[in-house]
Amino acid sequence: MLKVGIVQHSFLEDVDTNRASNLTAIENLASEGAKLIVLSELHDSLYFCQTENVANFRYAEEIPSEFTEFYSQAAADNNVVLVTSMFERRAAGLYHNTALVFDTDGRLCGKYRKMHIPDDPGFYEKFYFTPGDIGFLPIETSLGKLGVLVCWDQWYPEAARLMALRGAEMLIYPTAIGWNPDDTDAERKRQRDAWITIQRSHAVANGVPVISVNRNGFEEDPSGQTSGIDFWGSSFVAGPQGEILYMAPENASAEVCVDVPLQHSENVRQWWPFLRDRRIDAYDDLTARYLD
Amino acid sequence: MLKVGIVQHSFLEDVDTNRASNLTAIENLASEGAKLIVLSELHDSLYFCQTENVANFRYAEEIPSEFTEFYSQAAADNNVVLVTSMFERRAAGLYHNTALVFDTDGRLCGKYRKMHIPDDPGFYEKFYFTPGDIGFLPIETSLGKLGVLVCWDQWYPEAARLMALRGAEMLIYPTAIGWNPDDTDAERKRQRDAWITIQRSHAVANGVPVISVNRNGFEEDPSGQTSGIDFWGSSFVAGPQGEILYMAPENASAEVCVDVPLQHSENVRQWWPFLRDRRIDAYDDLTARYLD
Question: What is the ipTM of this complex?
Answer without folding.
Answer: 0.97
